[in-house]
Amino acid sequence: MEFEALSSAELSTYLRSVPSLYALLNEPDELDISEVGDGNLNFVYFATNTRTPERSVVVKQAPPFLRLVGKTWPLTRHRMEREVAALRRFGALCPQHVPRVYHADSELFLMVMQRLSSHRILRQGLMDGIVYPRLADHMSTWLAHTLFFGSDLYLAPDVKKQAVSAAINTELCKITEDLVFTYPFEDHPSNVYSAAFPSAEIERLWRSPELRVEVGEMKWSFMNDAETLLHGDLHTGSIMVNQDETYVIDPEFAFYGPMGFDVGALIANLLLAYFSRDWHDTRNPQRPATPADVLPYRDWLLAQVSSIWNVFAERFVALWREHESRRKSHFIGDDHAGLCAEAFRARFMQRLFEQSLGFAGCKMIRRIVGMAKVADITSIDDDALRAAVEVRALRCAERLLLERHRMTSIDDVLAVAREMQATGPVCA
Ligand code: SR1
Ligand code: MG
After folding, report:
1. Which pLDDT does position 243 carry in this prediction?
2. How many Å lie between the centroid of ligand 2 and the Cα of residue 362?
3. SS3 of 105, please?
4. In terms of CATH architecture, what is 8-114?
């Protein structure tokens, strides 16, 4: 049967027919339903009791196609099951950073979840130049906990292998394999270039064997390194914030993959915000004034990159040490265990750092060359300035991919970003 999105009346009747939701919504006579989804994949609604508007929930439903494109790009609806499972798992690990799932329906491929009414999408907040003082702390915790507790560093080997199998997400992984690691690096019809984007830049990308090899390595890692349960799409549109709280939403791309993929996605999106910053500063004079004693916003963005990596690494290693006795030095188990375990950890963290930078590079390139862009950049309506921002970001991404094996500190990344920012035209 042909899929039809639920009408407001149908959704309202449905929500009122589920006893737990009926109670949660304060026994509504009437629900106000509004479709608010601006994502690429699904339909999202707010459902609010008109009598007591503070009683409101989010409803998310997966249609049997990619919303961004429509019925010509069919998708099964099982992504909703992956998303619900990931929200529950991440919610158990980090309840303070994950919206609660109130109800899931595996026939309608729909879920009902907590409405975060005093929070906004981080990407929008960053474009408006808002400082979120707890963002780095919260995201470091989220990353450390989700990446550590899903891995063989914590789980028993049989439990972990079961978890890998339960989280297989073939269709959405294929989207990433194509859109992040393949199409941007070839002359693919789905690529989209902004009006003044220089063709020499894209040709350099396609014709650099060194770069293509690095991207090949990242794709291989993405497809084969089933290290932990990832969010799988951790850009700044998947994070909701206010001054006190941070929530990670939308894990429909969740699967067992390489840890650096989530870390890299977040770094990539903060760097895209950094490179587009000057434009938003000039367009947004009404934004709250930055107090004189704090960093200019562009530097604040880089400080978030730095802090997220450093604090994440510290917390991840602390969790590992704390749980090692429980695992009986699972990886290094002889008399020299202590020393060797520390050496192994140091090597592991350097590898994770390099891997994160490689993924960050791929994620930045796909947002400039590929079909799904980011508002930080698409909102720049001066073609020449937009192209200048894109070129800086692209060159920074290439350097992350090519130089990551020589980088040992996040300061090396910030230095490359600053160097790239200092090149080319500036916003008047
Ligand atoms: C075709 S779907 C485009 C993108 O939207 C999601 O947010 C993922 O990043 C995906 O690659
Ligand atoms: Mg999403």
Report:
1. 97
2. 18
3. strand
4. 2-Layer Sandwich (3.30)
> What letter represents residue 332's amino acid?
I
Residue nearest to atom 6 of ligand 1 (CA): 40
Residue intervals in the chain for CATH 3.30.200.20? 8-114
Name the residue of 67, 233, 248 whose CB sits within 8 Å of the most ligand 1 atoms, as the mutation to test its pocket: 233
**Minimum CA distance residue for ligand 1 atom 9:** 233
CATH 3.90.1200.10 in the chain, residues?
120-421
Cα-to-centroid distance, 86 and ligand 2 (Å): 13
Task: List pLDDT tens digits, range 51-72.
Answer: 999 999 999 999 999 998 899 9
Instruction: Determine the average pLDDT of the residues in 240-264.
Output: 98
| CA distance linking residue 298 with residue 196, whole number of Å | 24
Q: To the nearest 10°, report the CA torsion of 382, 201, 122, 143.
A: -170
- The atom of ligand 1 lying closest to the CA of 176 is 11
Pocket of ligand 1 contains residue 268 by CB under 6 Å: no
**What is the domain class of 120-421 according to CATH?**
alpha beta
- Of 253, 109, 241, 195, nearest to 387 (Cα)? 195
